[in-house]
Amino acid sequence: MINRACECRSCDVVLLGKGLTNWTGGIDYLRLCIEGLSATLPALRIGVSLPQPPVRARIRTLLGDAKRGILQVFHHGTFDIARIPAPTLEEVRNALTIDRIACDVVPYRDSRKGLLSVVRTLGAHAVFPSLESLGPEFPVPWVGYIPDFQHQYLPELFSRRERRSRDVIFGNLIRDARVLSLNSRAVADDIRRFYPSATCRLVVLPFAPAPAAGWLEFDFRETLRRYRLPPRYFLISNQFWVHKSHITAFEALLLLHAKSEFRDVELICTGSTYDYRWPRYFEELGRKVKALGLSSKIRFLGKIPKIEQIAIMRRAVAVLQPTLSEGGPGGGSVYDAVAVGTPVIASDIPVNREIEHESVRFFPARSAEKLVQEMEYSLATPYQRPQDSILREQGRIALEKVGAKIIEAIAFAK
Predict the structure, then answer these.
(1) 109: pLDDT strictly greater than 70
(2) This prediction's pTM
(3) How many beta carbons lie within 10 A of that of residue 193, not counting itself?
(4) What is d(CA 236, CA 240) in angstroms, rounded to the nearest whole number?
(5) Crossing angle, helix 331-340 and helix 306-315, to 10 degrees?
């Protein structure tokens, strides 16, 4: 299986899927990188490498799951070691398929030696982005990537071991990488704060919402009928992780329903319902919704096909983003919403404040009272969605900016 690399085309840049392909936001990030590079240098040959863990690593994973289960019993009184299965090569390949862009997904043995073998086989001149240090002596230029410092700001969401692990991984990256690619100025500021002696170059990718091929052409009416969506609804498209703060939106909806003219308004939620750090979190949210008396007004659709998520997003009154922490401005759902011309109401955390777009409004994080005011404003204020031609042109310009920044980061790595 690993030798399949020899059957693939050579490439100029290898994108590393490790740490990214097992969650929707990571897949979206890789798509953004692929589209950005292709928009900037259409002739560039791009490959994606996906690690395949050896048997020993799989055994360690099973033992780690068992240990986590024991700790869950100790801390929460429950035993649940279910995990989201790692996507197959074919699933990743399908998720990253982009019209007119040729991109191979190539497996490699999950080790530095295994990665180097694939990179050399493909003839790649650069590796991007790496969530762990490849070492200062790695013979092919590589760009490091740090998503966020959530464990510093919300330590209660991480075990002590996870916090230590992130500190070690980030410290090694900052020490060994010539250049780091980041999704926001806020993360760059955090590096300067937590690692004041860092000497690596920091390259921040711009906020670059762009509609993927087919998003604007897709007829969303059938999707709305299939899901029986109401005429007026808000949308949250986040995984059900604790830091996404869905509860703030639930409480805001309760306040909204206090006024009779808004009692028809619903809240639609899409996204994976599993948080490995808090396996019972989704169940807790369900109980909270029932206690608030909102079971008929808040709908959980789970993880649905991306195109259907976008169809639901295009019809929403606005996308809500009550998150308490993000690595990039607004997270993936805000990128998508702005790309297709849907208004956004986002928490005012520093990273979100980097968004400069007329369709995005802000409210103080954790404040259901302020959020409901913005929801009422959106319901009462007519919004004219930009024409599709304008959205496409804005997306093209945004992708070229992303591609240029990635190429700049790679140049610094050489």
Answers:
(1) yes
(2) 0.85
(3) 10
(4) 10
(5) 60
